[in-house]
Amino acid sequence: MDTAPLVPNVRVLLASAPDGAPPAAHPLAVPDSFPADIVRACTGADPVGTAPGEDPLGSARALLADPEVSAVLLLTRQESPAVQTQPGIVVGSLERCCGPDGADHLMVLLLAAQHPPRARLLVVVGARGGLGASTFLLHLARACHARGSGVAIVDADPAGGLGLLLGDGVLPGLRWADLPDDEPAFRPEKLTTALPAWLGMPVLTGDGRGGPRDPQQLRPALDALRAQHDLVLLDLPRGWPAPPGATVLLVSGLDLRSAVAAELWRPGSRRRQRRPRRPLRRIWRVRASPRRPGCTRWCASSVRT
């Protein structure tokens, strides 16, 4: 039985095609390692290419003129001029899509083109334990939800600490352990409806089986939730880097320990560079003996020279 394409409104455009390539918006001979079957299965159409010397952005805009096309995935070659992502145009690397993980990377790009992340990502992290960062995140989520914003909550704590705070208010649904570890992307509408909800907000947290193992596991879930909501709140454990483009709220106390921990975690902070240490030299000095007045002794001391 035929299934509907995953991203029917997306077209894939290969830029900087070799000499002899057909004009834009016509099928072309793609590299053997390029997963063209993924493009056909997901979009229902073959990839198209630009003619030699043709502006890839102009070709992408021409494809967007079709009312049935909502986004274009533009794949450029390494030697091509840099092209910036624009509304409706997602730019990716053709070489990366031809690599060992090319099929997974292509799926991520296609889903990003069909469902571009629009939500603001807000990261809440405590400078140290016991400051109430997770509790503050829940109050913030409830306040934003009450103002009419679409809010999603993600708990990145490997121990699933946020789920303990939510208590019995969380409905049954998928946890981190139920999601496949190697999934490159999730369909936003499927993931949102499969997660448990707290006061009408989807929550992705851990349980007794654990949470995410590393920061790289966060990206597919965050991208999917950001495509369906206005605000995504991330409870980030200490020591993990904040995702690119996120706004960080660092919760700290009014004590020296919290201040030092906050300074060490602060994103973009550079530790003060130490001066190069000079070599040690041993110098013998004559010192007066404190027990025998009038007597002296030789003492060795190490100094920096």
From TrEMBL:
Name under which the protein is recorded: Cobalamin biosynthesis protein CobQ
Presence of the UniProt keyword ATP-binding in the record: yes
Protein species of origin: Actinomyces ruminis
Pfam family, any one: CBP_BcsQ
Coiled coil: none
Alphabetic keyword roster: ATP-binding, Nucleotide-binding
Nucleotide-binding keyword on record: yes
